[in-house]
Each structure stands twice: as C-alpha cells, then as structure tokens.
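Incident review: delayed structure delivery

Summary: a single-chain prediction request sat in the queue longer than the usual turnaround. Root cause was a stuck worker, restarted by the on-call engineer. No data loss occurred. The affected request and its eventual output are reproduced below so the record is complete for anyone auditing the incident later.

Affected input:
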Amino acid sequence: MKSLEPGFIERQPISQQLIGTIRLLGEYKGRETLFKQQKPQFLETLRQVAVIQSTESSNRIEGITVPVTRIRKLMEQKISPQDRSEQEIAGYRDVLGTIHANHPNIPFTPNVVLQLHRDLYNFIPQEGGRWKLTDNSIMATRPDGTKIERFSPVPAHLAPEAMNCLHQRLNDLWDAGEIDHLLLIPSYVLDFLCIHPFLDGNGRMARLLTLLLLYRAGYEVGRYVSLEKVIEDHREGYYESLYRSSQGWHEGTHSLASWWGYFLGVVLLGAYRELEDRMKLIESGKGEKSALVLDVLGHLIGEFSVSDVRDRCPSVGIDLIRKILRHERKAGRVQCLGRGPNARWRRI
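Output delivered after worker restart:
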C-alpha cells in the first residue's frame, strides 16, 4: 500500500549494484528457458527436491519442525498429518502445489489471497481464509528472553481495505508496465507484511505469494530451487532488511533499498546461481542423479546419514547414494564416523 502509492517507487534511489543485479537476473531468466529445453528430466528431479525443501524451510522459519522422513511422506500424501506441525506442513504442501500447477490461471486478487490462506489452514481446527479480527504485532526476542515490538501493523479494522488498495495499486502498476516487475514484487511483499492481514500465517503466505508473483513475471527458478531454503540460510538478513525498510512505513517515509537489495541480490540471484551450479555439475559429466546427490551433500550441515541424503533425493536409489559417498570418502571430501547402514557421515 504505502510502497505502491503514486510516485513512491519512482522517488526511491536505485544503486548501480541493484541495476547490475536486475540485469543479471534477466540473463539468468534467459538461460532458465534454455535449461528447460536441454535438461527437462533433471529439472523435474530438482522440482521434486525443491518442493520438499520449500515446505520444510518455510515452516521451520516459523518454528514448525517435522522430521524430513515424515515430510517426504506427507508430500507424497502417503500418510495423514498427526499433529499441529504436520497439519501446517500439509496445508503448505497443498498451497504450494496449487501455485506450481495453476499459476497461469490464478488472478492476483484479495479473494485469492483469502482462498490460499484458507487452504493453508485446511487441516487445522483454526479457521483460515479471513482477515484478522484483532490487532497484532510483529515481535522480536532479545538475548535475555524478553520480547519487544519490532513493528505495529495496520489495525484489524483497516486491514481489509488496506489489502484491497494494495492489490488495486499493484495490478494497475503491473499492467502499466512502467516499473520493472522485479521492483514491484518485493514492494508488494513488504507492504503485505506491514499490513499483516492475518492473525497467523503471514510469513508463510508472504513467501507463497512471492512465488506466485515471480511466476507471473516469468521467473520460475522457485520451481527448481527452494527460495524458502535460501531465505532460511540467510535468515538474519531477511529479518534485518525487512526491519530497516519498514521503519517509517506508516508515514510513507520508509526506504525500500535494504529490502530490494536482499530480495533481489540475496534470494533471487542466489537461487539462480544455485541453479546454474547444479546445471554445471550435469555438464561436467557426472550424470543427473549423481549431480543431484553431490549438490545435496554440498549443502548438508553437520553429521548426516545415508537416509538423510535419500530423503532429500527421493528419485535416487540408495545404492547409488552409497556409491557416491564411498567415492567422496576416497577423495577426502567426506568422512564416515561409524559402521553399518546407520553410520553417520560428515563433510570435511
């Protein structure tokens, strides 16, 4: 709303670094189209992994954790959710699937946002799909455990009109085509989070709507690389940039520079670079499934088991995973910490 008011974005200073980032993103977008033509099977494998990572990471950012073995079964709809955390995972799975499958036919309206939020809470007794009825606050926890208010969102009685105004302004600017969509998308996300239109689920909805808007603009890297995982890996920057760019928002005196820089330079550009790295593994002659396993190994932190790798590579057989681990151990890149099928491993 505030970021999309007439003339506001036009008055924002744009650094040479940001201009360079936008140019690079355009180049990566073009190569993404080439990847689709050359390696569709590998991209489908990446898509399967990204869906699991996105669901896991976006919920974990909000403190919702479920073992990855359970997540994979929930994603494959082989089991029913057994507790609140798994219900949250199942809801995110369904909304993510809707966006991946139907994004060309989803109009970007407040009613669609309500419907997606309803689906997010489909497995939970708490009712979804309605704007907040009471005021809420964005809180932070100090090192000593005390909580402080980082931001006071739009009051509940003003939230419906704020969302209507936000969507009207976004769609008008989008259709006019005078402002780059890569600037409009993070501006919308910031305003959505400052409105904080729901009592719960605002962070997850913001990340889902980010994916939907990027699809709308033709940037599909989020199908193959989890944007949520990139955000989780750079969580401090996520909260800090949002905080900086939200200061003065109610008065319309805020600066979009910090959030634009993080969103485009860390999240989106980082995702495209990760996709390029994965494609380079294929071009090096490793083979698609081997490249996927090597990529997963490169991102694992701390100790892990063969099963941990398998859960992140659902399309790869366990024998190939063990073969790659033996090769990597011989090359001195990983270390086995025990014996037997349940032995732990770690990167060196």
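Verification: The chain has 14 helices and five strands.
Action items: add queue-age alerting; document worker restart procedure.
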